C-alpha cells in the first residue's frame, strides 16, 4: 500500500530534504505540502498550503513535521486529532506535552513518532552514553550546530541527558565552591550535569558526550555532515507509525 505523506515545513532545510526522500521512494507519495511563507499553490502537482487547517480535505496517512519549536506541539496534536500519524523531527517539546500527546494518540489508537534525532549514529551515541553513565557519573554534553538553529540546547542534547539521568547516580558536578565570573560559563544545568551549545556557520549537527573519572576519560562523538543523514530514520518512522497504535518518543523504540 502506498503511504500518503504531508510535509509541514517543506521549504526549510529538513522539510525540503524530506520532500526529496519521499519522491525517491516508490512506496511513498506526497499528499500535500505546508509552509506559511510561500506563495506557491502547487509543486509538481502536489497541493501547497500556508495553514494546517487547509489540509483537512486531503487524504493522508502520515504528517512529517520539520517546522519550528513554537508550532510543533499544535501541529502534532492536530495530526492525531485528524487521524494522521505524526512523524515529528521538530524540537522543543516539554515532557508534559509529550506525555499529553502520547495519551491522546492512545485514546485515538493512532501511531506516531517524536524523534529529537533521526540519525542512527546519534541514536547509538545516546545508547552508549546511557551505558557509560552507569560507570562514569561525571559527564558534560557539548552540542554543536549551524548558526541558524533557533533552539538551545538541541533536542538531542536534552534527550541524551534524560537517558543518562535514568542510569546515572545523581551528582551535582563541579567544585562545591565554583563561581562563574562570566554568567553562563558553565553552561546549562540538567540534573547536576552540564550542557553546552555551540553555534557556528559551517556546522550541521554534532554532539560530544564527555565522561571523566580518576585518571581516565571517555568521549563519544557523532557528526551529521549532511541532512541526508536523518532521512533513513524519517523513512523508517513513516513506514512504522502506520502500524502502531501509540505515539513513541525516540527513534530507538522503532529500531
Ligand atoms: N529530528 C531530527 O533528526 C532533526 C530535527 N531538526 C529540527 O527540525 C526543525 C526544523 O529545522 P530546519 O529544517 O533546519 O529549520 P528551517 O528554519 O530551515 O525550516 C523550518 C520551516 O518551517 C516553516 N514553518 C514555520 N512555521 C510553520 C508552520 N506553522 N507550519 C508549517 N511550516 C512552518 C518555515 O517557514 C521553514 O520553512 C528544528 O526544530 C530542528 O531542530 C533538524 C534536523 C534534524
Ligand atoms: O536544528 C538542527 O539542525 C537539528 N536539530 C535537532 C536537535 O535539536 O537535536 C537534531 C539535530 O541535532 C539537528
UniProtKB/TrEMBL annotation:
Phosphoprotein among keywords: no
Alphabetized UniProt keyword annotations: Amino-acid biosynthesis, Cytoplasm, Diaminopimelate biosynthesis, Lysine biosynthesis, NAD, NADP, Oxidoreductase
Chain residues that bind NADP(+): 41
Name of the featured protein: 4-hydroxy-tetrahydrodipicolinate reductase
One MF term in the entry's GO annotations: NAD binding
GO CC field: cytosol
Sites where the protein binds (S)-2,3,4,5-tetrahydrodipicolinate: 146, 155-156
An example Gene Ontology biological process: lysine biosynthetic process via diaminopimelate
Function: Catalyzes the conversion of 4-hydroxy-tetrahydrodipicolinate (HTPA) to tetrahydrodipicolinate.
Pfam name, any one: DapB_C
Catalytic activity: (S)-2,3,4,5-tetrahydrodipicolinate + NAD(+) + H2O = (2S,4S)-4-hydroxy-2,3,4,5-tetrahydrodipicolinate + NADH + H(+); (S)-2,3,4,5-tetrahydrodipicolinate + NADP(+) + H2O = (2S,4S)-4-hydroxy-2,3,4,5-tetrahydrodipicolinate + NADPH + H(+)
Pathway: Amino-acid biosynthesis; L-lysine biosynthesis via DAP pathway; (S)-tetrahydrodipicolinate from L-aspartate: step 4/4
Residue ranges of domain Dihydrodipicolinate reductase C-terminal in the record: 121-255
InterPro entries documented for this protein: DapB_C, DapB_N, DapB_N_CS, DHDPR_bac, NAD(P)-bd_dom_sf
Active-site residues annotated for this sequence: 145 (proton donor/acceptor), 149 (proton donor)
GN (gene name): dapB
E.C. designation(s): 1.17.1.8
Family to which the UniProt record says this protein belongs: Belongs to the DapB family.
Amino acid at each position: 500500500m502506498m503511504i500518503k505523506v504531508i510535509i509541514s515545513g517543506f521549504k526549510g532545510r529538513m522539510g525540503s530534504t524530506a520532500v526529496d526522500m519521499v519522491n525517491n521512494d516508490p512506496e511513498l507519495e506526497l499528499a500535500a505540502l505546508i509552509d506559511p511563507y510561500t506563495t506557491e499553490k502547487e509543486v509538481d502537482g502536489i497541493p501547497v498550503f500556508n495553514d494546517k487547517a487547509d489540509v483537512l480535505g486531503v487524504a493522508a496517512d502520515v504528517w512529517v513535521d520539520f517546522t519550528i519549536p513554537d508550532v510543533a506541539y499544535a501541529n502534532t496534536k492536530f495530526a492525531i486529532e485528524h487521524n494522521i500519524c505524526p512523524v515529528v523531527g521538530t524540537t522543543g517539546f516539554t515532557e508534559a506535552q509529550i506525555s499529553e500527546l502520547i495519551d491522546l494518540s492512545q485514546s485515538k489508537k493512532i501511531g506516531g513518532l517524536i524523534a529529537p534525532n533521526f540519525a542512527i549514529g546519534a541514536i547509538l551515541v545516546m545508547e552508549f552514553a546511557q551505558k557509560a553513565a552507569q560507570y562514569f557519573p561525571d559527564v558534560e554534553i557539548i552540542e554543536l550546530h549551524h548558526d541558524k538553529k533557533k533552539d538551545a540546547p538541541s533536542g538531542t542534547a536534552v534527550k541524551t541527558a534524560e537517558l543518562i539521568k535514568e542510569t546515572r547516580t545523581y551528582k551535582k558536578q563541579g567544585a562545591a565552591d565554583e563561581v562563574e565570573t562570566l554568567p553562563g560559563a558553565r553552561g546549562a544545568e540538567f540534573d547536576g550535569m552540564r550542557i553546552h551549545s555551540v553555534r557556528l556557520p559551517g556546522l550541521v549537527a554534532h554532539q560530544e558526550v564527555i565522561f571523566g573519572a580518576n585518571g581516565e576519560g571517555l568521549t563519544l562523538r557523532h557528526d551529521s555532515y549532511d541532512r541526508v543523514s536523518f532521512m533513513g530514520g524519517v523513512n523508517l518512522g513513516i513506514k512504522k507509525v502506520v502500524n502502531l497504535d501509540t505515539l513513541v518518543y525516540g527513534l530507538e523504540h522503532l529500531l
